[in-house]
Design brief:
Two copies of one chain form a homodimer. The first copy, chain A, is α/β, with parallel strands linked by helices and 475 residues long. The first copy, chain A, is 51% helix and 13% strand. Chain A has helices at 6-21, 38-47, 73-77, 92-102, 112-128, 142-154, 159-171, 174-183, 198-222, 252-276, 292-300, 318-321, 327-330, 352-355, 361-380, 394-406, 416-423, 425-439, 454-474; strands at 26-32, 54-58, 85-89, 132-139, 190-194, 280-286, 308-312, 339-343, 384-391, 446-450. In chain A, the strands form two sheets. A five-stranded parallel sheet of chain A has the order 2-3-1-4-5, with helices on both faces. The mean pLDDT of chain A is 94. Chains A, B: This is Polyphosphate:AMP phosphotransferase.
């Protein structure tokens, strides 16, 4: 036990209550070799924090379940909500070192160096969205570590732990790998604590945290009101959605003949995904009444329901709003071999949030890169991503709205919000086109499909999905 | 693919929108042997439901992570929220059969027959709290199953699945075990679907669901306003909290001498829990300002922070309110070898919810048994549960409130709610005593500790915890 100055506790109480009031999410990362003393430091810190707003998150060696999700999944999932504090005892750094040491490739389908980029981008987007990340590396000389190990060994109750430590110390060259991380550029700086002098390492831990919290509190208090106007151009002329909508049609017989073979291929794709343990994300965006639901229904019709989930995305809940906007999507990503349909998606950030002013200009502009990085990190895990945009013309939407109004079996589908969205048609077109220009990548392409003819749109969307997946599965 | 009558889809749409409006949670369980055709039935059903309110939950053979939590944990976790529908494709029944076949004992420390009781109690408490559970067992003759298997084998993409099926069919005598379940009493009846006649099994599936949904909708619409008055006696005389509060005290030196050895023993307990892979739940209840937080702090002071979590329980969130009241606690139970502290707990049901009228009389009265069953099911998984009640006298509480008011470092701890709670002191005493009488079990005992002297209370609580845990660990 570290004997803690009462003043540290008081000051930490003050500062953490203030970050809580200001709704600043804080992540304190404690890395360090086994038996370096980091556990004692972490505990000293943990004891000063209000349990109501604090989570202690220990990263363990990779388990079976970890390997079924993207590398960063457990850390996204554990993200503190606004005003909360997470202590990460070992973090994505130790996790990646464990992966490399064990040569785990289940959920890393690229060179490990790309995961280092993902980690960089992960920290960057958190910081850009107001998270405070404070990172420590606890260093201890070999004799200090030996002393700690000896203490563990001498207690019969903790002997097994000493053995476990010994085994893991032999296996992983944690310190050498960490050195590379410490030297590389990072969005949030490291503080190195030398455990040789126990007292001064405790002091340094607390002083660093106090300093960082004070600065982020001051920064938040001074923050100016941001611009929130969506930056829309009047009389925007679409360049991408200039279809001859009447051209694309498909009669009933033709539709059946074309649809069923594609549905069968989709089913085979599901089997292959499962076999190769690759996850698939199918993202659908488009105007209200564009036919996203019906489209998804045809795509999944022949699939094994144990292998897919459908995420119908609507307004975020209170808890979702209190997290990074990608959090609620990250926790819904499919596990290996499975398919997730997204009926609307993270692209809401640059569509509805931009249009309705829920995201500031800075936020939606930075979202393009954030989303590209997010999708890239999923692709690194082996994921296939296909994005379908169903485009309707304005007259056809009106027809469909009127249809819904008249039909008692469909009227529940039409809400006041649909009419309000329709009033912002031009803004929606502009936001959608800019979205596609900025996020159409070779790993996760957009397919824009004219949606006036439902049959045509279903066959066309499914065809794009099937062809892209087959290509990726053959690679 | 089953060719589905359009009328089924329409009717299902109507009924499920109505259960959604009425906020009735629905669980549809589909059990059946491998290759029985249940997948096709499940898919036909899934396709008729609105993805927004439906989750398809497939139960897989037990994984490493399952074995680290109580048996029912994945099903509690997956509970639909009010107004949602879950399709459980294989359920707790198939799961238990898998456990028995593989002889898994990691998280089942009792004879499997006790888990059957837990399953009964699980369904019962869900039904009692307004869940609609509709259970199907799909039967198919051997020749029908062979046909299904052949179809899988003939397709090169699904050949591996046929092999997997074959292997699992050989290993587990699923059908024989299910027969016992089908014969035994259950809170929600089974409907058996014979897949010999495919069309009629589909019809029977939908008609059963329609019938059940219509009945529960009607029942909900007719529901009378329940009694919500807490049933408190005027001038209630405590029988349990009649301490001589001044008697129990402890001076500073004595305190230190007694506390530290107990903290060391607590640390050893943590090691042993980890070694034996047993979870520990420490529950703290008591009046406002009784010292629960300070008490917990002393108990955890020497513990390895990677092995415990603290759940500070406050008012439920929107999502928590939309679930069975035990849901938010079940998802926070510790995994094997870990400790969870609960600073307030599920006992809120029979305390604050009773007192404030958030629970009806029927609800809080039934909660005693529900809670006993809940704790019993955790004990079956190997858990140790200790419950501490810190009792304060009314004058001492006033002193502490005033102290907090005066001290700028403590005033944040005192809220208007604390004063409002104080006005209901007598009701709180009555509810607490009745709670203890009704839920003090040998597996999960209550220790009532006079809390006027903080030092005495800390040592005493820790002593009770340590002694109980040591006893359980030696068994």
């Amino acid at each position: 036990m570290i004997d803690l100055d009462k003043d540290f506790e008081m000051k930490m109480g003050h500062l953490s209550r203030r970050t809580h009031e200001l709704e600043i999410p804080v992540m304190i990362i404690i890395e360090g070799a086994l038996a370096s003393g980091k556990s004692r430091l972490a505990n000293a810190l943990y004891m000063t924090l209000d349990a109501k707003y604090t989570d202690f998150f220990a990263t363990h060696p990779p388990m079976e379940v970890d390997k079924r999700y993207p590398f960063l999944y457990p850390f996204w999932k554990a993200l503190p909500k606004n005003g909360d504090i997470n202590i990460h005892f070992r973090s994505w750094y130790a996790h990646l070192i464990d992966y490399e040491a064990q040569g785990i490739k289940d959920n890393i389908r690229v060179d490990y160096k790309y995961i280092r980029d993902d980690i960089y981008n992960f920290e960057k987007t958190l910081i850009d969205r107001g998270y405070e990340i404070i990172k420590f590396y606890v260093h201890a000389d070999d004799d200090v570590k030996k002393e700690h190990l000896k203490a563990l060994e001498e207690n019969p109750a903790s002997q097994w732990k000493a053995e476990e430590f010994q085994e893991r110390m032999d296996n992983v060259n944690y310190e050498k790998e960490m050195e590379i991380f410490l030297e590389n550029p990072t969005p949030s700086p490291w503080t190195i604590l030398d455990f040789k002098d126990e007292q001064s390492s405790v002091e340094s831990l607390f002083e660093t945290i106090f300093d960082r919290l004070e600065r982020c509190i001051e920064h938040r208090e001074k923050k100016k009101k941001p611009n929130v106007d969506g930056e829309f151009i009047e009389n925007y002329k679409p360049t991408l959605f200039n279809f001859d909508f009447d051209k694309e049609s498909l009669d009933k017989d033709d539709y059946k003949d074309k649809l069923e073979p594609l549905q069968m291929r989709m089913r085979e794709i599901q089997f292959k995904l499962y076999e190769k343990k690759m996850p698939l994300l199918l993202v659908y965006e488009g105007m209200d009444a564009a036919g996203k639901g019906g489209n998804i229904k045809r795509t999944r019709m022949f699939l094994d329901p144990t292998g897919y989930t459908i995420n119908a995305v609507s307004a975020p809940t209170e808890i979702e709003l209190a997290h990074h906007y990608l959090w609620r999507f990250y926790i819904d990503v499919p596990r290996s071999g499975h398919i997730s349909f997204f009926d609307r998606s993270w692209y809401g950030r640059v569509l509805v949030e931009r249009i309705e002013g829920f995201a500031t200009n800075k936020e939606w502009k930075e979202a393009y890169q954030e989303i590209n990085n997010f999708e890239k990190s999923l692709v690194h895990s082996g994921a296939i991503i296909v994005k379908i945009f169903l485009s309707l013309d304005k007259d056809e939407q009106l027809e469909r709205f009127k249809d819904r109004e008249k039909d008692p079996d469909k009227e529940w589908k039409l809400t006041d919000e649909d009419w309000r969205n329709r009033d912002k048609w031009d803004q929606y077109i502009q936001a959608s086109e800019e979205m596609i220009f900025n996020t159409n990548t070779s790993e996760a392409p957009w397919y824009v499909i004219p949606g006036n003819n439902k049959r045509y749109a279903r066959v066309e969307a499914l065809k794009r999905i099937v062809e892209f997946c087959e290509r990726r599965l053959e690679e």
